[in-house]
Amino acid sequence: MGALNNNMSGIISTLLPPILMVLVQTSFAGTNLLYKVAIEDGMDINIAVAYRFLLASGLLMILAFYKERTHMSNLTWNIVFKGFLCGLFGGTLFQLFYSASLNYTSTTIATAMGNLEPAFTFVLAIIFRMESVAIGSTGGKAKIVGTLLSVGGAMLLTFYKGIEIKTGSLHVVKLHGDDIHSKPVHHHILGSLLAFASSIFYSGYLIVQARMSEQYPFHYTNAAMMCATTSIQTGFYALIRDRDWTHWKLGFNIRLLTVLFSGIFASGLSSTLISWCVQYKDPLYVAIFSPLMLLLVALGGTFLLNEKLYLGSILGGLMTVMGLYVVLWGKSKETKTSKNSGDDAVQME
After folding, report:
1. Rounded Cα distance, 67 and 59, in Å
2. Interior CA angle at 136 toward 132 and 139, to 5°?
3. Best CA proximity match to 111, nearest among 175, 158, 144, 148
4. What are the DSSP E strand ranges found in 239-349?
5. pTM for this entry
6. pLDDT tens column, 1-24
7. Which of 155, 235, 252, 236 is nearest to 195 (CA)?
8. Where are the domains of the chain?
């Protein structure tokens, strides 16, 4: 019976992280599609982001107080500062740059640049000694090759168009002027660069989050600090950009749905799960699941929003995903080698 319980526990601990990360990427994909529709409806995306994190921070503060209030005396200014940095990188800068990119390029292209997050996270993790690379080993070579593949795929997707792939569409929402290839080339490149920068900020957030979770492993509080910081920063930014209060009103429409979905799932739930997973696994593991969002957004954009799909998007996306999973394979190879070495050392003793 004990062995059965141990086996079940092992299966759950193995399956739980990937299942939760798939949920996170699904919530991100849904938010991306809703953002695009809300922009088309005339909503200022900066206001949507401010509302999103205001809602998330309120929910998380309640949960943190209810679940983790007995541990709040352990908070230090160092941990609070890391919470501020998480909000700045993973919330404010990431969201504002990414949201701005949606004004210049399609959801598929903007999301595809997010596929570089594992590569950036990998490099930052090496710099901050959270990840190692044995260049002479099979796993180390796989990490390097996979990183180069992912970068090359993102560049191919951004700068190569190719033929249009004809697909069926449900036409749930028809966006006007959403074909990025009908816009000036410099708009398309600017949108890609903004999304590129947002990926760097997100990778920095994962690194800081991992350090914070090591010091203070209370994930509701960590997520609440991150979202509260972001809500203040994005709120001020949105107020500076738009002081017309009529633009801040939410009715029973796509704008309210966007705020509720993104606030509850993409910020409230996801930031908590990410905080847990970077501690349970590591930042690179969390970032590895970013390509899934590209697939979901590409499918949603094509079949629901009537976005056009091009050969360059497919080839670049496949190349990027292939590179990222080569990195994941290399990482698992190194982990297995390290474990075997450790077992041999124990037997020698």
Report:
1. 12
2. 60
3. 158
4. 309-310
5. 0.81
6. 455 455 556 666 778 888 999 999
7. 155
8. 21-340
